[in-house]
Design brief:
Elements: E1 6-11, H1 15-26, E2 31-35, H2 41-46, H3 48-67, H4 81-105, E3 109-112, E4 115-119, E5 122-125, E6 128-137, E7 141-143, H5 157-160, E8 169-173, H6 177-188, E9 192-197, H7 208-220, E10 224-227, E11 231-237, E12 240-245, E13 250-253, E14 255-258, E15 262-264, H8 271-274, E16 297-299, H9 310-324, E17 339-341, E18 347-351, H10 354-361, E19 364-372, H11 376-379, E20 384-392, E21 398-404, H12 408-420, H13 425-430, H14 452-457
Parallel strand pairs: 1-2, 1-6, 2-3, 6-16, 8-9, 8-14, 9-10
Antiparallel strand pairs: 4-5, 5-6, 7-15, 11-12, 12-13, 17-18, 18-21, 19-20, 20-21
């Protein structure tokens, strides 16, 4: 048997890579890991965690206003972007240290630098040659900018987390969850926000009712959403920027943020040298065991462009190491993965949208509810919560659950267990609600939704 420096070498110390490395080491493998940035990856360093902290900050604008309805007198208040960013950075530094200690405590050797394949078992890491029996690619993705004149003046979510000053006016380009979340962050912190999306409605791929409901709520909050609109050029205009839109309009702004997609971070890895196959988007092609076409090389997380969510990468990393090093073959199940958008209000979902369920099951029973939450009966705030259950009519299995409203992610997480177990609508109905909560609506929606046209014909 060939002698290697490591049993496993992981390229990328993000969520999936760190989990895989630690589990493999627990099973007795000699493990090394390379990272050319900070330990923790997108989620910890420049994604989920810092973004969620900014989302929390953005909520206080409305919380202070709502407090008056509950008898609280809130005095003069102001917001400091610099304080928020400094406090956020301190927490990310702490988490970076935690991840380093977790790896070291597991016996994983950390190599700082960029890894590049020399052959199927050999890597160059900043000039040092390292060999390994198995190699795991876990380098994640990276935000991209469109190829338009002046794109260099724009920022991405990476830079948005480190702006020296808060923009008074910002254009956010894109309609996905990152665009929606940052539009809400800047809006809640007092910036004037224009959000542009070239499609018909924001959040493509989500249930259509969810998309329309959220868009209506964001418009109420003052976000200027312009669909079927894109930017064709960005120019300097003194200390500001001038964006030319596809409509012919020009908008002056302090910042332009691109949230128009991410690309797998495969460039420069030397994958062509060893023949690892990529798809048209540059993602590593893997089988159901996360194995590439090269027998000893695997990949997990966003670099594979399956479901680009941190918990998915974590589980893919776990399944890989349990299978390869734990003698416990396990596959990642990518069905019914819950997700959330930390917009204001939140969006959360598990299972299929009505549109996808229609294609899969045909006839459906739909249950919908839209209401003003109890909190706002005193505040008078015009914010509506929306809930929807999608049911396969034949089996009565709940195949999709969707929500727009406060703490949607916290609520849907619990319901994700029921959906994953194959719960029926009758089992939802048999559950007793917790009153008064918004969540109880999911077990008290008993009347099937009937389209207005059909109801009028009755």
């Amino acid at each position: 048997m060939a002698s290697y420096d490591y049993d496993l070498f992981v390229i990328g110390a993000g969520s999936g890579g760190v989990r895989a490395a630690r589990v493999a080491a627990k099973h007795g493998a000699r493990v090394g890991i390379a990272e050319n940035s900070r330990i923790g990856g997108t989620c910890v360093i420049r994604g989920c965690i810092p973004k969620k902290l900014l989302v929390y900050a953005s909520h206080y604008h409305e919380d202070f206003e709502d407090a008056a309805a509950y008898g609280w007198t809130v005095g003069p208040r102001s917001f400091s972007w610099k304080t928020l960013i400094a406090n956020k950075d301190r927490e990310i530094d702490r988490l970076n240290g935690v991840y380093i200690r977790l790896l070291q405590g597991s016996g994983v050797t950390i190599h700082e630098g960029t890894a590049k394949f020399l052959d199927a078992h050999t890597l160059d890491v900043n000039g040092r040659t390292i060999t390994a029996d198995k190699i795991l690619i876990a380098v994640g993705g990276w935000p991209v900018k469109p190829e338009i004149p002046g794109a260099e003046y724009g920022i991405t979510s990476n830079e948005a987390l480190h702006l020296a000053e808060q923009p008074k006016h910002i254009i956010v380009i894109g309609g996905g969850y990152i665009a929606v979340e940052f539009a809400g962050i800047f809006n809640g912190l007092g910036s004037e926000v224009v959000q542009l999306y070239r499609g018909d409605q924001i959040l493509r791929g989500f249930d259509d009712d969810v998309r329309h409901h959220l868009a209506a709520e964001l418009l109420k909050k003052g976000i200027d959403i312009r669909v079927k609109t894109d930017v064709t050029r960005i120019e300097k205009a003194g200390n500001r920027l001038r964006a030319t839109l596809t409509t012919g309009a020009m908008v002056e702004t302090d910042a332009v943020m691109f949230a128009t997609g991410r690309t797998p971070n495969t460039a420069g890895l030397g994958l062509d040298t060893v023949g690892v196959q990529l798809n048209g988007k540059g993602a590593v092609i893997v089988d159901e065991w996360s194995k590439t076409n090269v027998d000893n090389i695997y990949a997990v997380g966003d670099v594979t462009d399956r479901i680009n969510l941190t918990p998915v990468a974590l589980n893919e990393g776990l399944m890989f190491s349990e299978t390869v090093f734990g003698k416990n073959p396990r596959k990642m199940d990518h069905a019914d993965v819950p997700s959330a958008v930390f917009s204001v209000p939140n969006v959360a979902t598990v299972g299929l949208s009505e549109q996808d369920a229609q294609k899969t099951y045909g006839e459906l029973d739909l249950y919908k509810s839209s209401f003003r939450g109890l909190k706002h009966t005193l505040t008078g705030r015009d914010e509506k919560t929306f809930m929807k259950i999608v049911v396969d009519r034949k089996s009565q299995r709940v195949v999709g659950v969707h929500m727009v409203g406060p703490e949607a992610g916290e609520i849907i997480q619990g319901l994700a267990v029921a959906v994953k177990m194959g719960a029926t609508k009758q089992q939802f109905d048999a559950a007793v609600g917790i009153h008064p909560t918004a969540a109880e609506e999911f077990v008290t929606m008993r009347d099937r939704w009937v389209p207005p046209a059909a109801k009028a014909a009755e």
